[in-house]
Amino acid sequence: MFKILLIEDDTTLFHEIKERLLQWSYDVYGITDFGKVIEEFTAIKPDLVIIDIQLPKFDGFHWCRTIRSHSNVPIIILSSRDHPTDMVMSMQLGADDFIQKPFHFEVLIAKIQAILRRVYNYNTEQMKLKAWCGATVDYENNTVTNDKGTIELTKNELLILKHLLEKKNKIVSRTELIKSLWEDERFVSDNTLTVNVNRLRKKLDELGLGRFIETKVGQGYMAKEEAAVYD
Known about the structure:
Order of helices and strands: EHEHEHEHEHEEEEHEHHEE
Distance between the termini: 44 Å
Helix content: 40-55%
Structural class: alpha/beta
CATH superfamily of the largest domain: Response regulator
Number of helices: 8
Largest sheet: 5 strands, parallel
CATH architecture of the largest domain: 3-Layer(aba) Sandwich
Radius of gyration: 18 Å
Strand order of the largest sheet: 2-1-3-4-5
Shape: globular
CATH class of the largest domain: Alpha Beta
CATH topology of the largest domain: Rossmann fold
């Protein structure tokens, strides 16, 4: 049974979401002290975290950043605010998905199922090391290493890189990437992919590899062996 940590201070909404998730056989946990979220997260060891942005003491962005610094566990952000920057900020901090309130529970369930299937089915496959541009991509440990150091990727970032490397030197359309990552593109903003790719490329820049992920305007992205120029 998958364990889901629901960081939501609205008691009515918490119990409503929990009841729906229990119907799908998920084990749901809440927070008892919103000043000690990371301690409770560590004790629970959830398989997925859902975080509301508006929380007492510290907001959801703070806890997303803090959890991501400790773990690569999948994170979904909930927001009742109508600010496009909320989604951008969530993705930049390492969230895997973003849901605007009010939402249909069918959408929440679909996103949870897609993330869990993608992350944990993927982790049961036989893992291999991938050599690319003088670096080693470790699909099991979510890292990329070369003589400049090692970076750690989130699940989404690793899966984007993996998909691009599987079709190296070929253009992978944005639609194909969205389908491969989130399975049902109807529930995904196109900007979500852009943020994830930009975040991946920023991390790869630390190893001098960002230039090898090329943007093909109006088409998609390409992983190259030779240096590429991008905006």
